[in-house]
Amino acid sequence: MISNRRKSLLTALALGTAALTPLHALAEARPGEGVSVTPIFPSIAEEHFRGQIAIMGLEELGYAVEEPRETEYAGILLGLAHGDADFTVHMWDKLHDDFYQQVGGDEALVKAGDMIPGVLQGYLIDRATAEAYGITSLEDLRDPEIAALFDADGDGRADLTGCDPGWGCEQVIDYHLLSYGLANTVSHHRGPYFSLMDDTIARHEQGEPILYYTWVPQWISGVLAPGEDVVWLEVPHTSLPDGNNDVDTHFNGQNLGFAVDTIQSLLNRDFAEQNPAAREFLARVQITTEDESAQNLRMQEGEASPEDIRRHAAEWVEEHREQFDAWLDEARAAS
């Protein structure tokens, strides 16, 4: 008969041995084995780089990642809330908050982590026109003579290159034009953003004045460099459609009119609760605005196929392998 003391010692040894096994095998663990995952991304390819980085991490955790679905931002959040997809890495925390609340907010979705912190939005004009006419603020375009400098279609109003219909920035721009008294002097040109920006860049190369909206990160600021080719315009005061005008909208001492934002990883709540490893990895993975802007510029220079984007993501992972492995280990431990 084994004494109680001896039985306790044997139990402790057994537990100790069992505890060593998962630690030894942690780096090889694939907690997502047998689980299919559906990403959902915007339809613009320039934002797929970060998504491919996230996919590569989930694949290393054993998840079978389906081909990403593509739609506009409101549709992304709606699809996640309804369970038509499992995750995205394209949720702008402040810009898309209306969409987020409309589809159920925290009851339907989980904000896992910050994929890209410190993202900017705002209005810019070419530096030559800004300096020649002393233009520093969007409000300066209330003057019909100043606005006419940016008239590309002959209607006497400034032509502002804006957003795709359905993007969060579309409604903010429309609200700004009304709030700042610009509805009669500025036209918001909306449509396929990068096609519109191709025309805008062409006008700049021909020496014509330009007025446009953009955000960082992406490749536009690599072609039209702020401070060199173009300058940011201030707004007279913060005025946002949701009425939350206490958010930080300043960058380098200028009020750009848009909240300094964070792009987040967002998950369907049921998926997040059933897959702690995926949730933990997506809470950890992060890139910089500079990373994405540099990759977007490579796309603009011709490396724009899905295979190119996947290769760019693989190169980024290898360049950041130590940090990437640490994120994977934390995800495995969470499972």
Structural account:
The chain has 335 residues and is an alpha/beta fold. Helices cover 44% and strands 19% of the residues. The protein has 14 helices and 13 strands. Strands 5, 6, 9, 10 and 13 form a five-stranded antiparallel sheet that branches. α2 packs across α13 (306-319). It is elongated and about 65 Å long. The relative contact order is 0.18.
Short structural description:
The chain is an alpha/beta fold. It has helices at 4-25, 48-60, 73-81, 97-102, 127-133, 144-148, 168-179, 193-205, 220-223, 269-274, 276-284, 289-300, 306-319, 321-334; strands spanning 36-37, 40-42, 64-65, 69-71, 87-92, 109-126, 158-161, 186-189, 211-216, 230-232, 250-251, 254-255, 261-268.
Which tags fit this structure?
5-stranded antiparallel beta sheet, 13 strands, alpha/beta, 44% helix, 335 residues, 19% strand, two-stranded parallel sheet
Gap from first CA to last CA = 39 Å
Helix content: 40-55%
Strand content bin: 15-25%
Please trace the helix and strand order, writing H or E for each element. HEEHEEHEHEHHEHEHEHEEEEHHHHH
State the shape: elongated
Which residues sit in consecutive blocks of at least 5 with pLDDT less than 50?
A: 1-24
Topology of this protein?
Elements: H1 4-25, E1 36-37, E2 40-42, H2 48-60, E3 64-65, E4 69-71, H3 73-81, E5 87-92, H4 97-102, E6 109-126, H5 127-133, H6 144-148, E7 158-161, H7 168-179, E8 186-189, H8 193-205, E9 211-216, H9 220-223, E10 230-232, E11 250-251, E12 254-255, E13 261-268, H10 269-274, H11 276-284, H12 289-300, H13 306-319, H14 321-334
Parallel strand pairs: 1-3, 2-4, 7-8
Antiparallel strand pairs: 5-13, 6-9, 6-10, 6-13, 11-12
Helix pairs in contact: 2-13, 11-14
